[in-house]
Specification:
seven-stranded mixed β-sheet; globular; Purple Acid Phosphatase, chain A, domain 2; 16 strands; 19% helix; alpha/beta
């Protein structure tokens, strides 16, 4: 059972990062800001909604990865997601045909056999030929896009953000007509883990496009922890890089950190139900370490209805 959380509109530091939800005080920029609803319910698990999982830095072939994969299969038994977005570093070390079996096909066999589709992005440990691996569904491209229900997914190659890719990102986001725009790639634009931290140079390139074209949520890996960042310029950022690797105790939360977890492996289960995106971060042992619901941000230039204005008031309970 998912615990209930309070919605706090206050930029105070996170004192218990795995147990509280925070909102940045972007009242003046409310049109661009998302809202975490007070008393967030569990994943609704409604028929017909888009259900997916997010995981990063998974492909070790070690016992820990297999344990995490077993937990994902267990969650799938009651929450039947049919998509997994992979946030890079899909495989460490050797990447021979035998490694693809040991580090992907075997641990995720229950999900693959159930028809779950994996959509990978490339990390710094991944060899270029991964784009051709059939079960990663990249179609031979290091960056690509696809739609599911009312969501436009954009998978990027953050190893080389060249002019050609940036132009493609802009045209793809500009032309997208789906209600939700979700981008994912390996290197996080925001992160407060000590090992790597934020990729600021990448942020300078991508964030203006994300803001201009109304990206709602961004998922990344690279740091082997879980972190949810308070909305930055109206966009939610998640770091989920501990589906196979873990840097225990590596988090150094700042005022940007809404929630974090660095004590065990984890992955994210996500459900998009109309204008709401529910998320639940689950550890290797099945513990819920963060959860909530994001109300879809308004598109640039739109007007906020009175009902949505009310949800900015921390005293209003949904």
């Amino acid at each position: 059972m998912m615990p209930a959380f309070r919605c706090i509109v206050d930029p105070i530091p996170v004192s218990s990062p795995a147990r509280r939800l925070y909102l940045t005080p972007l009242v003046a920029a409310a049109i661009a800001s998302a809202v975490l609803l007070a008393q967030a319910p569990a994943l609704p698990n409604r028929p017909g909604t888009l259900k997916f999982a997010a995981m990063g830095d998974n492909g070790t072939g070690d016992r820990a990865q297999y344990d995490m994969a077993e937990q994902m299969a267990k969650v799938h038994g009651t929450f039947p997601f049919d998509l997994v977005i992979m946030l890079g570093d899909n495989m460490y070390g050797g990447q021979s045909p035998a490694d693809y079996v040991k580090k992907f096909e075997q641990p995720y066999a229950p999900l693959l056999n159930a028809g779950v589709k994996f959509q990978a992005s490339i990390g710094n440990h991944d060899r270029p030929e991964q784009v051709n691996y059939r079960l990663y569904n990249m179609g031979g491209q290091r960056y690509y896009t696809y739609t599911r229900a009312n969501v436009r997914f954009v998978a990027l190659d953050s190893n080389l953000m060249d002019k050609k890719q940036l132009e493609w990102v802009e045209s793809t986001l500009r032309d997208a007509r789906e209600e939700w725009k979700v981008c994912y790639f390996h290197h996080p634009l925001y992160s407060n883990a000590e090992r790597h931290g934020a990729s600021v140079e990448l942020r300078v390139l991508l964030e203006p496009l994300f803001v201009k074209y109304g990206v709602n949520v961004v998922f990344s890996g690279h740091d082997h922890v879980y972190e949810r960042i308070k909305p930055q310029k109206g966009i939610y950022y998640f770091v989920s890089g501990s589906a196979g690797q873990l840097r225990k105790g590596n988090m150094a939360p700042t005022e940007e950190t809404a929630a974090s977890f660095d004590q065990d492996l984890s992955f994210m289960a996500v459900e998009v139900a109309g204008a709401d995106m529910f998320f639940q971060t689950i550890s290797r042992t099945g513990k819920t370490v963060d959860a909530g619901v994001i109300h879809r941000q308004l598109k640039p230039g739109a007007t906020m209805p009175e009902a949505d204005r009310a949800s900015l008031d921390p005293h209003v309970h949904q």
